[in-house]
Amino acid sequence: MYILFIITLLIRVASSYFSYENYHHFTINLHKERDLGTLSKLNSQFGDDIDFFIREEHIGGRVQFFVNHLTSKSVHSFLKTHNASYTYITKDSWIDSSFVPKRKKRSVVGDKINLNVYHSYDDFIKYLFALKNKYKNMISIKKIGKSYEGRSIYTFTIGYQSDKTKPIIFLESGIHAREWITQSSLIILIDYIMKNSDKYNDILKDVDIVIVPCVNPDGYEYSRRSKRMWRGNRNITKSQSYGVDLNRNFPTGWNVEPDHFETYPGVTPSSELETTVIIDFLTKNKKFIKGFLSLHSYGRYLLLPWNYKKNHYPPEYKDTYDLGKKMIESVRNKTKSTYELGTGADLLYPSNGVSTDFARSIGIKYAYTIEFLPSSNYTEIGFIVPEKMIPLAGEELKYLFIPFLEHLYGEYIKN
Length: 415
Prior knowledge:
Its cofactor is Zn(2+). Keywords: Carboxypeptidase, Disulfide bond, Hydrolase, Metal-binding, Metalloprotease, Protease, Signal, Zinc. One of its GO terms (molecular function) is metallocarboxypeptidase activity. The chain is of the alpha/beta class. It has 2 domains: 23-90, Metallocarboxypeptidase-like (Alpha-Beta Plaits), CATH 3.30.70.340; 108-414, Zn peptidases (Aminopeptidase, 3-Layer(aba) Sandwich). The protein has 12 helices and 14 strands. The protein has helices at 2-15, 33-46, 69-81, 121-134, 181-195, 201-206, 217-225, 273-284, 317-335, 344-347, 355-361, 390-414, and strands at residues 23-29, 50-55, 62-68, 85-90, 108-109, 112-113, 139-146, 152-158, 168-172, 208-212, 289-299, 301-304, 340-343, 366-375. It has an 8-stranded mixed sheet with strand order 7-8-10-9-11-14-12-13, with helices on both faces. β12, α9 (317-335) and β13 form a beta-alpha-beta unit. α5 (181-195) packs across α12 and α9 (317-335) crosses α12.
């Protein structure tokens, strides 16, 4: 009876995963006003059959979506008739080792972890607690809030204990559910720092590196178990089915967007539990936080505020730009990877209510968004990073982070 129960449970879990089998992937580039009209007509005609996962609905933007193979020919014909600028990819199946996480036995054993695979949120947290037990004088973990579905959200702090509050370098990861590479890169960075703590001994005596390993654990687990391209949190209502995009829910530059967009920013600024967890921590510690990094994918960009408006720059922008140049030169010299530098609005498109802009708005001078590999010209789906690319992503984060850390230590502490 027990074996039958387990088999039934496994079948249910497997059948609940949205596989994208026999789906085709379309990208439409929006160059002119006419293209926006074409997109609107496409929505009206095929809306129920289209699964959008990028919706930059403005001139210069793009949309990407999946369509099942039965509808694909009709969509292809429609776009061709309307002279749309588009590309599409067909595969028999989109399922691979990066789409559906394989159950890898003993991928976390105590303070040992397989750095080259994707992990569940629980395994990730289990590993961090094991590190805390191993490095009691250097690591602390604190629960700072809960997600919509009740999962605990933690800060993981690296730095020697002190009687006084130390300057903070803050990193957040996993705010967008489908961007799995951010957590995996972070594990590699943590592993590097702990194995080389003697090298950074002086810095870690005077600085705390505070990490929120996953801002959106509900969305991340839903992406792992049910729908790979999920982006938002799991606050679903009758009027919208994408959840809330947490990186559009911060108050700086917040703006209303339709509730059928996957970038839906919530009913009000700071409406989501996960967002308020970050806002509360940053606000309470703003006089101590000297640097802020928000980890994302993809495109290989290092983005500065402001993100919500083109040709719009905060005070001391040159200082943040100059440090950004050092960071991208470092990663290029060490890995040959090329990152582009600029504001999110200028390099990509305006984005309202993002965490980096909020950090800058409360006085955190050095605030950056890192968009990891693959590069923007990647021909496959950039959010689905194969596990074989995890080591390189970790190296890229390491060589972006080291000059960031050393510069802030030199500017605020050493001198």
